[in-house]
Amino acid sequence: MNTTATEAYVNEAISNLTATLTEKDTELEGSIGAIGGLGDVLWLLLGAYMVFFMQAGFALLEAGGVSAKNTKNILLKNILDACLGGMVWWAVGYPFAYGTGGASPNAFIGGANFFMYKGTTSMNDSDGSAPSGYFYAGWMFQWAFAAAAATIVSGAVAERCNFMAYLIYTTIITAFIYPVVVHWGWSSEGWLSAFKAKAGDDSEEDWSYDPYLGGNGFIDFAGSGIVHMTGGGAALMGAIFLGPRTGRFNADGTVSDLHRGHNAVLQALGVFILWFGWYGFNPVSTLAFSMMDIAARVAVTTTLSACAGGCTTLLIHIACGNVPDVGPALNGILAGLVGITAPCVVVEPWAAAFIGFVAAFVYYGSSKMLLKLKIDDVLEASPVHFFCGAWGCLSVGFFATDIYVNNGVNGAYAADKDNGDSGNYGAFYGGGGEQLGTQIVGVLAIAAWTCGTSALMFFGLSKAGVLRVSPEDEQTGLDDSHHGGSAYDMQTMQANSGTVKVEAV
Amino acid sequence: MNTTATEAYVNEAISNLTATLTEKDTELEGSIGAIGGLGDVLWLLLGAYMVFFMQAGFALLEAGGVSAKNTKNILLKNILDACLGGMVWWAVGYPFAYGTGGASPNAFIGGANFFMYKGTTSMNDSDGSAPSGYFYAGWMFQWAFAAAAATIVSGAVAERCNFMAYLIYTTIITAFIYPVVVHWGWSSEGWLSAFKAKAGDDSEEDWSYDPYLGGNGFIDFAGSGIVHMTGGGAALMGAIFLGPRTGRFNADGTVSDLHRGHNAVLQALGVFILWFGWYGFNPVSTLAFSMMDIAARVAVTTTLSACAGGCTTLLIHIACGNVPDVGPALNGILAGLVGITAPCVVVEPWAAAFIGFVAAFVYYGSSKMLLKLKIDDVLEASPVHFFCGAWGCLSVGFFATDIYVNNGVNGAYAADKDNGDSGNYGAFYGGGGEQLGTQIVGVLAIAAWTCGTSALMFFGLSKAGVLRVSPEDEQTGLDDSHHGGSAYDMQTMQANSGTVKVEAV
Amino acid sequence: MNTTATEAYVNEAISNLTATLTEKDTELEGSIGAIGGLGDVLWLLLGAYMVFFMQAGFALLEAGGVSAKNTKNILLKNILDACLGGMVWWAVGYPFAYGTGGASPNAFIGGANFFMYKGTTSMNDSDGSAPSGYFYAGWMFQWAFAAAAATIVSGAVAERCNFMAYLIYTTIITAFIYPVVVHWGWSSEGWLSAFKAKAGDDSEEDWSYDPYLGGNGFIDFAGSGIVHMTGGGAALMGAIFLGPRTGRFNADGTVSDLHRGHNAVLQALGVFILWFGWYGFNPVSTLAFSMMDIAARVAVTTTLSACAGGCTTLLIHIACGNVPDVGPALNGILAGLVGITAPCVVVEPWAAAFIGFVAAFVYYGSSKMLLKLKIDDVLEASPVHFFCGAWGCLSVGFFATDIYVNNGVNGAYAADKDNGDSGNYGAFYGGGGEQLGTQIVGVLAIAAWTCGTSALMFFGLSKAGVLRVSPEDEQTGLDDSHHGGSAYDMQTMQANSGTVKVEAV
């Protein structure tokens, strides 16, 4: 080079151009990133809508599974699990579950954002002082989960639970019992959580994972334990403390067939809607548009487990000497769905089918066991949700693959893990027993918490004398005795039924 | 610098590179913009599907709420509101509503794109001469809205309206009455519209807003007024001109309980489906992928109002001395949903809950008022849709926040406003009374138009003697007398019902 | 220029900057492309969920359309079409349909990816040795299609088909009959396929189309032929080989009204759900986020055909001297939907309405013809799916526009076509008869294959004596005789029905 001036001129021109280029690139990256962010919100909203629609599925499944005389009672419970649940979740449920970010992280319970309050009403979450679209969408998604957890209980306590007792227990579950489990398992502070932020990382954007337990923490992707064991555990306690429906068990210990669902069509439609909604429950639990490829795998594992659960339960039912009935197929599908909810993102398709296969036995066996123990869980909520939920959590310890747990591109758990201890995976693949151990701890902790607090609650309601309706009201049916009359007006149905006449007495 | 040649060489190189860079950036920006545009279409399509699915919700809600003997009649009306409505909306409804862009803007009614005709069949809307994907998706979304508006009426006139009269009134509503209101309130030319384009801006892409009324125009985001008051107002006129069902009111002025819905399960499922569909109705009314963060907030306000409406109405019902029944909870949810439909995008979560709370009183009070006036609105379509719709529009005047109305990043109304008069917002926040005044004008205008034209229409049908079925047919039921027999064949249901036998006469 | 050194210095600086620029651009293009890829997966997943939900629609439509005494039987069939179908589709169905990419392309049947096995469990499809998100999402979408095809049959053979026979035929259809047709029509190797890859193009990403037949191959966009004719053809054969229900046809050849559906509400809800699901079926068959504009047009054509089909069938029914009944309107909607499924992407809106109009006549006429032939297709599955499916395929030959078939921006078929013979389009537009000829070949081939193999299958089942239940069981009803009792427990419904009492005998 012969002159510094030339060099300087060139350098300046290049420097100017580079600055322009960098600015433009940053702008483009921002635009691309913004689309990804909008995609995240879209994804969460769609998931929230689908999981919310599961309320209709639960309502139909439960309405079809009880006597016609208790139909309106169970419908009203499901309606209020969404409505009252929404109010409670807004006020205290979400804050206890996800209200984190305070100065001192709390591994047990959250404590911020009551009534969604974040300081301002603008939408710019960059400093955490205002709700973002992602915050609102996440609230929606979690509200739908909370309503699902709460509504599981109504199936177990159906046909004899006092309406006032229902209002109290569903409020306590949505306000406290369930949020605490969510905080444990899914928040950035929880003692079980796989997403626990490293100490000192206070921005949600930047944190790296540093779980308390093992390399990965408790892996319960979409809530076999956190949602289904919680709802199912409370359901089990409710059924126990209420005692069986009058006449449910004969003097000789056998089960009476006096009580059966009044409409199989409602049950089937309910399960189809639940299955549909589960595609919001599981795949959308990826929570990010960028994990869409993983969500597709989750949809597949969810499907195969549901299919295997349904087929297997029907086969078990037939093998036990029964005819092919609709009920076992439906509950088998739900057993498979509940079972795959924890492991859906960390297992291969074949393992998903196997998990559904085992879930069928878990459901069928636990259902029989409850009958032997004379526990009257009307909709079999605890066999489906509690016992299959536990199996789902444990199955992670056996079938989680190395690549899905520990490879950021393929898995939901590996990203940004920062504790240098991320080698755990399923025992079946030679990953050792540590993850299984963590899963056992999680299952026992959730079971102890949810059954303990629920037992206390139902014991209190029982002592207060408000838990169960009178034998007369039970006999009459809750709709006539408590809700203003039957869900059905059959007279006009009869009168118009062409070839049939019914004599009014 | 010592030589011009060097400088020129450098400049040329830089210039070439800059040109390449600019070309590439434009290309990348185009790719990013294209994704946003595809996202817009996806968003509108999903919304259209969800709002279309509300037809099933209306059908079930209405079927469950009438006598069994009129079930097929109400089903057929709902089916045709989608089918016949689709044909009419294609031919003239959409053109009257959104067929704008002509040489002389029309503030009252549109007049282009009949049968979707835009000149060519290719898909390139850049010069407006061909339908774009966004045009098609928008048509879908608006068709679903039109079907919803039309189908609201069938609930009010149920159990006694002649089928021929139904065909005529639903055609007129979908073809003319509703499209005119849409043109007023949502088109780029309407006299009420918040989205009225500035004179001279003829390309939809580029226009800036210059509403006739106040700084913002009439704010009715997703149609508390435009959809629900229109449907509900026509419903009210229909109920008035038809007169009450035979025996509905006793001689002493009290209400008979002779008429009641025949299936609460259908009603509950209907409301769950409607609630689900409302997440297409409200959040997707953002109409743009880029407003997804705002859509999430809309989902939250929609949810809180629905929850508050359901809980509050049930409480009012109990406070009035009744037992907790399913019906009030369901209609309360709908009241909250209708109420929040106008303000959903401009209010804070707490205000949404309050709007739902008030909507419960509006619904309950107007329902009682109609009974006092001996107006027999079978499904309470006008209390839910007309009166709560009006409340929703008015609530904007109280609770719209400054930031959501006037800040382009956070709101749907602020973008590109060009009239230098954008300071109006809710009176509660100190925004003065101008927006409330505009809202009152809008409510009165919609009420006058829809009730006036509907009254004329139903009066004509009544005079022509085709409005109401004969007392005999009403007694027999419309299914047997007009639609080929009952919706149900109960004989086989009975015969198979194990423990029960029915004697055929 | 005075010195080479200066020039070299400048060139090097420019070269470095260009390299940086190119690297950055590639990175940005990659980010943008990745979003598009994630959008593809999202799109397919949403479509899969919606099409899966159609199972609920089929279940309700069929349940409502049979006697109450056969309700659980038909529900169980629909449940198993999803569950058992999922297992079979996973094992062999998908592999036979889409398991391509082997060394020697097979125009008749696929043969890879059994049990989704692709060699590894990681998610990186770049070398085809591992399943990608798109692979998983595509599997989901195709599983839902397979379940739909299989479940069509159950409607035709309802109320008399042995459950064991059902298990066998549904397995054979899902495992073999349907996958072969899919391979023919939609795979990259099929002899009918419009998407047949040019020889030598083995990567799915890069292939250009080189169909065997004509310039475009057989155009059946979303499966009027491939899905509906296959399901409907098997349904027709099942109905023929089973023979009519006892008492269905009177001695004088007239049709008895002894058999009719027991619940019109279920039928209507079923059709609404099917219509909703069809928006997954047709628009999502674009299979790509980038074709969203086209998907919107598909949604419009789907809607207009459904609307026209419903209105027209009701008019035909009335013109034939009947009252306006719900059934014809519902089946007319389905006729329009089935008819538009093949041509939805290549026709203009007006043509879509016309196709639905004609489909109404095809449905109504073929339904009457079957009754004349004393073929008892309970749910009219073959008139709706087989005959209207054939009409849909043929309509492409008449109404496919040049621009939609041959213009890559507007159509699904034009992209990357490489055979220099892409001028075919609809005869109505002067496109000649070649496309119509191809469509006829496709229709005949599918009809021959599906009817031939199904006839063989049902003949075998009949000879083996397992096809039909005993007359006694048919009389009693399948629910009591085979499935453990009625779907309904009416006793409690009665007992609570306030004003009515039923005497137990």
- Inertia-based shape of chain A: globular
How many independent structural domains of chain A?
1
Q: What is the average per-residue confidence, as pLDDT of chain A, rounded to a whole number?
A: 90
CATH architecture of chain A: Orthogonal Bundle
Number of helical regions of chain A:
15
Which range best describes the helical content of chain A: under 10%, 10-25%, 25-40%, 40-55%, 55-70% or over 70%? 55-70%
Strand elements of chain A, count = 0
Q: Provide the gyration radius of chain A in Å.
A: 26 Å
What are the SSEs and their pairings?
Three copies of one chain form a homotrimer.
Chain A: H1 4-65, H2 71-98, H3 133-156, H4 163-186, H5 224-242, H6 264-281, H7 292-319, H8 326-341, H9 349-372, H10 381-399, H11 402-406, H12 434-463, H13 471-476, H14 478-482, H15 490-495
Helix pairs in contact in A: 1-2, 1-3, 1-6, 2-3, 2-4, 3-4, 3-5, 4-5, 4-12, 5-10, 5-12, 6-8, 7-8, 7-9, 8-9, 8-10, 9-10, 10-12
Membrane topology (chains A, B, C): Multi-pass membrane protein
Transmembrane segments (chains A, B, C): 41-62, 133-154, 166-186, 221-243, 264-281, 333-364, 384-405, 440-461
Family (chains A, B, C): Belongs to the ammonia transporter channel (TC 1.A.11.2) family.
Structure description:
- 3 copies of one chain form a homotrimer.
- Chain A has 505 residues and is mainly alpha-helical.
- Chain A has one domain: Ammonium transporter fold, CATH 1.10.3430.10.
- Chain A is 62% helix and 0% strand.
- In chain A, helix 1 (4-65) runs antiparallel to helix 6, helix 4 packs antiparallel against helix 12 (434-463) and helix 6 runs parallel beside helix 8 (326-341).
- The N and C termini of chain A lie far apart (114 Å).
- Residues 493-505 of chain A have low confidence and may be disordered.
- The interface between A and B is large, with 85 and 90 residues.
